[in-house]
Design a protein that fits this description.
heterodimer, A: 284 residues, 2 domains, 3-stranded antiparallel β-sheet, two-stranded antiparallel ribbon, 10% strand, elongated, B: 296 residues, alpha/beta, TIM Barrel, 8-stranded parallel beta barrel, 18% strand, globular
């Protein structure tokens, strides 16, 4: 090796500068030149000083800018692909170019702060779409929200609660049923559930209609299931998830659904057999 | 140099040649008893989302673990960063280690983020004694928390720094010695970095202490024109197979893993790559036995 470089920068300065240049959405050349690029100037982070490009070894085969550029390109595409994997419906609807732009803007506002790429899309459905997208695809936040719920359900642990058979006949009313951690409940303003299924059947569906849906997302023994349920059913599941006593939940369900006891019993039987209820807590 | 008959392998069990466990092959792996002796998995893929506990991928991994040894290979330890070690990450890793009981645990000699931001890339460090001390202290902290030694892998790199004081292999060896950890030597990464930075790949292999090498990686790379890119999306190249043979001659029959992440082939095709690595190990071993017999 040659003699050590005398003015070695602090490691933290070097890493801060590299983080800036690698993640800058304008690209390495434009960022170094201080050019505006296509991104809103207010979103651009200023360059940490001093500039560290001179610390990167250049060779006849590749300049220091080209070498840094490999990491910048790798950064964007790796995170873009992670978002595309978690939001396949959004990616399909927007097409490659517009999804790429949306991902780039999202990464500026919501850079990864987790060691796990699985957390990257946690703010994606809430991320404000630009005017053009919101006008053309008003259902996009709902679709993204559904896809994030599916992702969370897939990665949630299975519940391990007490068996329902351990409950005595007189204890049911005050018992609190525990919903499985894989259960996600969401409402959407647009009917995105069937739309999402058709995307995966590889049929290009018509845009979803503006119709409120109450959605139940859960994982069975194999994969994540998405079901549209009635509002009273959805509310009952939400109350169970919030820890309300079973007797009160059933009273509300009966009042809201005007359903017979037989019908309500059938719903519970189905929820239990589908694995939505993973345990029970008895009142002390 | 006579090929080695045995490998110290950093005291790790000898498992042979394994492959990475990836979602595309879950069904095949669970429904057929394949000939692969062990699997390596990306640790973070089985930790679940923030505050979670792994979900469906972990259920599958636990089923696989019933029949095969498994090794945990992380990508987010961020061991070279100037940020503090993330204790939340470390506790989740420790939880996963307890649950899976891996044969060993590894991550990369690099940094992946700073100021709380994660770039999810394996970024190179300057090779200096100051950085050796910085990394070694952090490895010691990790090993204390996990209650076990880890292996650190050399990364493919596309840039080096003017103020490096030593070669990459000296840096890797010094970190392993000072931290008392093992080395996961990625032969493809050695080849890619040797080409990108114009050093001799065999000199790299000669410079690494055999006693600390517990595992080898093999993977495919892409020729990006002026630089080679570590892509893990194609078969191992001829040059890397040749370098692997040299590594086995020098280090002995080390546990080896075929890494293939993108454009994944079918399981049988992937197993062909593993079989080729196994044949090279057997061939080198055969030569070593012959040479030893002839010397008597």
């Amino acid at each position: 090796m040659d003699a050590p470089f005398l003015n070695a920068p602090p490691l933290a300065d070097l890493q801060r500068w590299l983080r800036w240049i690698i993640t800058d959405p304008r690209g390495v050349d434009a960022a170094l030149a201080g050019q505006a690029g296509e991104v809103d100037a207010g979103w651009i982070e200023s360059e940490p000083k001093p500039r560290q490009l001179g610390m990167v070894v250049a060779t006849p085969t590749a300049s220091s800018v080209a070498r840094v550029g490999i990491y910048a390109s790798g950064y964007f595409w790796r995170l873009h692909d992670a978002l595309a994997a978690d939001f396949p419906g959004v990616r399909e609807i927007l097409g490659a170019g517009r999804f790429q732009r949306l991902a780039a803007e999202y990464l500026i506002k919501h850079p990864s702060r987790s060691p796990n790429l699985a957390d990257l899309g946690c703010s994606f459905s809430r991320f404000s779409l630009d005017r053009e997208l919101r006008e053309e695809f008003p259902f996009l936040p709902d679709l993204a929200s559904l896809e994030w719920s599916i992702h969370l359900s897939l990665l949630a642990p299975r519940g391990r609660g007490s068996a329902l058979t351990s409950v005595g006949a007189g204890d049911w009313s005050s018992a609190r049923l525990r919903l499985d951690p894989t259960v996600r409940l969401l409402t959407t303003e647009w009917a995105v559930a069937s739309f999402w299924r058709r995307i995966f059947a590889k049929s290009r569906p018509a845009a979803p209609q503006r119709r409120r849906q109450w959605l139940l997302v859960y994982r069975d023994d194999v994969w994540v299931q998405v079901k549209a349920v009635t509002r009273p059913q959805w509310s009952a599941l939400l109350r169970l998830q919030q820890g309300c006593p079973l007797g009160w939940v059933c009273e509300q369900l009966a009042a809201e659904s005007r359903g017979s006891h037989l019908r309500i019993r059938e719903w519970f039987r189905r929820w239990i057999s589908s694995g939505l209820i993973s345990g029970v807590e008895l009142a002390a | 140099m006579a090929p080695r008959l045995e490998s110290p392998a950093f005291g790790l069990p000898h498992l042979g040649v394994g492959i990475g466990l990836r979602p595309r092959h879950y069904r095949d792996v669970l429904t057929t008893r394949s000939v692969v002796p062990w699997f390596e998995v990306i640790s973070e893929n089985f930790m679940g989302t923030r505050g979670g506990e792994g979900g469906r991928p972990l259920e599958i991994l636990e089923q696989v673990r019933e029949n095969y040894p498994v090794v945990l290979h992380g990508v987010s330890l961020n061991i070279g960063s100037t940020d503090p070690i993330r204790l939340d990450y470390l506790s989740r890793l420790k939880w996963l280690v307890r649950r899976i009981e891996p044969a060993w645990v590894s991550d990369h000699l690099c940094w992946t983020g700073v100021d709380g931001e994660n770039l999810h890339d394996l970024l190179p460090l300057p090779y200096s004694s100051k950085v050796v001390r910085h990394v070694a202290e952090r490895v010691a902290q990790v090993q204390d928390v996990l209650g076990r030694q880890i292996l650190l892998e050399n990364v493919s790199s596309y840039l080096t720094f003017m103020h490096s004081e030593m070669t990459e292999w000296e840096f890797l060896s010094e970190v392993a010695r000072c931290a008392d950890c093992g080395i996961l030597l990625d032969v493809n990464n050695v080849y890619v970095s040797a080409t990108n930075h114009q050093f001799d790949a065999r000199e790299y292999l000669n410079g690494v202490p055999a006693s600390r090498v517990g595992q080898l990686h093999l993977a495919g790379h892409d020729d990006g024109g002026s630089l080679l890119i570590d892509t893990h999306d194609r078969p191992v190249s001829r040059q890397v197979w040749e370098l692997y043979e040299y590594a086995i001659e020098r280090l002995g029959p080390i546990n080896t893993l075929i890494e293939w992440d993108d454009k994944l082939p079918s399981l049988p095709k992937l197993l062909e790559e593993a079989a080729r690595a196994r044949r090279i190990q057997e061939s080198v071993l055969g030569r070593a036995v012959s040479q030893r017999a002839a010397a008597r």
